[in-house]
Amino acid sequence: MTINWILERVEESGSTNEDLLKRWREGQLWEPVARKALKQTAGRGRMGRTWVSQDNQALTFSAAYPFNKSIAQLSGLSLACGLAVIKGISSATNITEHQLETMGLGLKWPNDVLLHQKKLAGLLIEGGQTNADQPTWIVIGIGVNLRSFDAIKNGLDQEIAGLDQLGGSVPIDADVLWLAILKELAEVIQKFERESFNSFKEEWNKWDLFKNQLCSIYQDKKMLHEGIERGVDELGYLLLESNGQIQKIVSGDVSLRKLT
Ligand code: BTN
Asked: What is the pLDDT of residue 169?
């Protein structure tokens, strides 16, 4: 059985994540719902950043789902959802996962999908449990750049990739991609509910673009740790090796950078 998403498609929203979170806070969420906006005026990213996307040049949507697990049991969910984005891209473009991998697509801990080391997609997962007898409502916000754009001109500190760089002859339709990702997201969510991140760990580590590279962990502008990135553990924590010791990094407010 798959998830029967209520589909909402709007011209404009401040942030589709905020729209669904507001409903959750007001007790107005009952069924799984996916909300897509052609344009976001206040798109949000991780760590209080803004998510900038060009109107009609990105797929921006959020999906809200009621989990029968506590927040603690959902550790690693955002990483598993990154796998759903890759699978959705594969299905919508008709490019196999193996081909995508050889074309330079992969994951950067915790939640980025990169193409040629540039950011193609990001995920922002929010929500919680208002009462112990209530489900844990999770809002999974996903932004995928359909076309690349000049990051510097747009005031971003990170280079941006677009699905147009995969070289297909026909532009990728945002609705086709949306439905493909939602289908994969449903599979990931249901498997996660039955099992845990442990079942996704091996696959996530296969897509990890920074594995075995010298990396650092930053909080704001401060470097907290440095070491060789060794993939993730069964909870989705990042493993960083330095001086023969493995340190576990929880995603929270930190970001990962490659040191080369
Ligand atoms: C990140 O990379 O920092 C996360 C980006 C998440 C962006 C998506 S776009 C749809 C949804 N609505 C938002 O305001 N943010 C997420």
From this structure: 74
